[in-house]
Amino acid sequence: MTDCVISQLLVLLLLFLVCSRVFWIKGDRRDTFAVLAPLAVLLSVLIFIAWDITFPSFCVFVLSVIVCIENMHSLSRLFHNMVTDYYSPLLVVCSIINLVLIVVVATGIILLRPVPVPLDELQVYEEKSLLEGSVTGGFHPRDGVFHSIDVVISRMVPDHVPAGQLPLVLWVTDPRQTEEQIRPVAARLAARGYEVITADFSKKPVSSALYRWKSVLNGGILPVEDYSMLLMQTIARYRSLLLLYGNSAVDSGRPVFIAGEGLGCEAVVAVAGLLPDIVSGYYTVNGPDSYGNFRQIDGWFDGFGVLTESAPWASWALYGGNPLDSRDATCFYSIAAAIQADFVFKNILGNNGFSGSTSDTVNNFTVAVENFNTGNFVAAIGSSASTGGNPVASR
Does residue 158 come out as left (phi exceeding 0), alpha (psi in the -120 to 50 range) or beta? Predict the structure, then answer.
């Protein structure tokens, strides 16, 4: 389980203790278990800050608030050093209803939990860093603990190779998602012999969640008034990041690639055109690559990242299907995107084939085919075989 799921279940456990106490606490005593209700609300808010606002987290937060409100009288008696000799029938009924809701929400969270990114199995190391600055003045490492955090950078590299010796890949994240939702692809691409950098600009958790839900309510497409603004913002942001990380990589003789999906597809092409002296080539999911070919991964939800892995509840609710498909450890969609990107980049470097993988091998990918539609596999691999011509953005 991921840390976010464990945190959600911890909050539900606190709520379960608060609501069930009406059945097993008897006699005149201080109702100390009531303090767990506001503690659950606080932890729910911290989950928002740490992992963004998702539907499961929102359900946990709403339950926490309801339970806290229902126990305000008990909290008041506790803070005034008064004992509780019995619980009102209304509180008992509300507690029973809450317990049923807690069990339902906990069951849903467990069945529709995200798939953890197996960094140890992939033999990939992840490093986080914090940046401050702006697109106009440029970004730089945060100078002090009291300075603002404008970007959270995740850098993934294979365990056995120093980062400074690998091709650099900057992955452009769609504004509707956070860096966490593209980690499965970044990790599997890094395992194939790259230093992969992803950035999270959503310092305020509500930002990406707002655009995500506006897109869902608009049939999966961003409203026109938001699209142009977010596209220009994304281009400016990743141009600045590419200047920060790409120049030093080029100076050391390393190739620099850029990749993305969703709205990031257009941003990738634009940034590659703006910085041709830095970018050696690019790849986009369900979009063009440096050769001018369009590559398709059927079942990929543009703009939402690897939905079946990062948010199975959303995949199941919006698009149907078996939510337990994502339990397969090989995870078809992230592997398909990593293989496509690797194929494009290796062709640009003059190394045809799928060499450079550490542990996320073609054998593992073959296992995934047994659990997913064969047509998706053909779409993921077959389109890669048609690559030809010269890369558009090659130096």
Answer: beta
Q: What is the DSSP string of 244-256?
A: HHHHHHHHTT--E
Helix, strand, or coil here: 92?
helix
Helices (H), 112-160: 119-122
Q: How far apart are CA 108 and CA 113, in angstroms?
A: 8
| Contact by Cβ (8 Å): 212, 166 | no
* Token pair of 221 as six digits: 């497409």
Residue 350 to residue 242: CA distance in whole angstroms: 23
Cα 94 to Cα 252: distance, rounded to the nearest angstrom: 65
For residues 371 and 328, the answer to whether their CB atoms sit within 8 Å is yes
What pLDDT is attached to residue 274?
93
270: its two tokens: 């634009």
Q: Which of 311, 198, 318, 207 is nearest to 261 (CA)?
A: 198
Number of neighbours of residue 85 by Cβ within 10 angstroms: 9
Q: pLDDT for 150-195, tens place per residue?
A: 788 899 999 887 767 899 999 998 887 777 778 889 999 999 999 9
| Residue of higher predicted confidence among 292 and 257 | 257
Count of Cβ atoms closer than 10 Å to residue 208 Cβ: 23
For the ranges 43-57, 326-340, 377-391, the lowest mean pLDDT is seen at: 377-391
> What letter would DSSP give residue 263?
T
* β-bridge partners, 29: 84
Residue 249's identity, in one-letter code, is A
> For residues 85 and 91, what is the distance between their CA atoms, to the nearest angstrom?
14
**Cα–Cα distance measured from residue 72 to residue 78, given in angstroms and rounded to the nearest whole number:** 10
Query: CA end-to-end span of the chain, whole Å?
Result: 43
| pLDDT tens-place string over residues 285-294 | 988 998 888 8
Q: 152 is written with which tokens?
A: 């959270």
The pTM of this model reads: 0.70
